[in-house]
Automatic annotation (TrEMBL):
InterPro entries: Alpha/beta_knot_MTases, rRNA_MeTrfase_TrmH, SpoU_MeTrfase, tRNA_m1G_MTases_N. GO terms for cellular component: cytosol. The lineage of its organism: Bacteria, Pseudomonadati, Bacteroidota, Bacteroidia, Bacteroidales. Transmembrane segments: none annotated. GO terms for biological process: methylation; RNA processing. Pfam families: SpoU_methylase. This is SpoU rRNA Methylase family protein. The keyword Plastid does not apply. Keywords: Methyltransferase, Transferase. Residues 25-167 form the tRNA/rRNA methyltransferase SpoU type domain. It comes from Prevotella communis. SUPFAM superfamilies: alpha/beta knot. GO terms for molecular function: RNA binding; RNA methyltransferase activity.
Amino acid sequence: MRKLRTIEMKRLSVEEYHEAEKTPLIVILDDVRSMHNVGSVFRTADAFRLEAVYLCGITGCPPHAEIHKTALGAEDSVDWRYFKTALEAVEELKGRGVTVYSIEQAEGSTKLPEFKPEPGKPYAIVMGNEVKGVHQEVIDASNGCLEIPQYGTKHSMNVSVTAGIVIWHFVNSQL
């Protein structure tokens, strides 16, 4: 087995990425304070060709050196928008017919392995602040909550790791 060289991977150019068909999924970052987490989400969004990333509240926006450090240029390929609050982003998306799920441990949440997204249907997922999670008013405005089952002593994971798991679930369910 031989590791592939970058040229052999046939990566899309930024221009080709913008023209390519997208996975109908938007990631909403609700007051995510770490620029490295923001950059990691951009990089994962690029890898799975997501529609967009919405940056809300105190979440940093490109161009920013710390975002670029982990995004490695994905902030240029993935479409993004800024909203003053995640609630504004959720309300706009729901008005366009997008189904929105907050990723949070909440009463009545659906465990991620039990959730099967409908192929082709537009979705958005809300990822919360590293300490406080998703704002309650955003949860209230969402169509529901998805929760990753956890079995250890900690009951939370890094926001960019969580985003990667949930994004993979959405994309893998569409294959």
